[in-house]
Design a protein that fits this description.
Structural class: mainly beta
Radius of gyration: 15 Å
Number of helices: 1
Strand order of the largest sheet: 3-4-5-6
Oligomer: single chain
Strand content: 15-25%
Distance between the termini: 38 Å
Helix content: under 10%
Order of helices and strands: EEHEEEE
Largest sheet: 4 strands, parallel
């Protein structure tokens, strides 16, 4: 199909659709960390990426309670994709470190 491409170096077919939603990149630089088994988000993880506007952390199995400090190194995030995790938003300060946030996708976050 048109969505599949042969990679001669790995000798298998893979999907070439980007994991970052197209509407996300409209906001500027994007960082895709989806599907990386990131179970804990800490401020120091993003210190080198201060200028990103879109962050995809979907499908990481993260189940932490966000307390408002996790994204303080990337305050210019406008689009945050946290779909398909197990995040807990029990803390009133969750995501308070993102003053420019416009789009937040929390789809499929069944906290257990």
């Amino acid at each position: 199909s048109a969505d599949m491409e042969f990679d001669p170096h790995s000798n298998f077919y893979h999907n070439t659709h980007p994991l970052i939603k197209p509407q996300c990149t409209v906001y500027g630089k994007a960082l895709d960390l989806s599907l990386n088994s990131i179970f804990f988000i800490g401020r120091e993880q993003f210190e080198a990426f201060h200028d990103i506007a879109c962050l995809n952390l979907s499908s990481n199995g993260n189940g932490q309670v966000l307390n408002g400090t996790e994204f303080s190194a990337v305050p210019h995030i406008k689009y945050l994709d946290l779909t398909n995790n197990r995040l807990d938003f029990d803390d009133d300060n969750a995501l308070s470190d993102l003053p420019e946030l416009e789009v937040l996708d929390l789809s499929y976050n069944a906290h257990y």
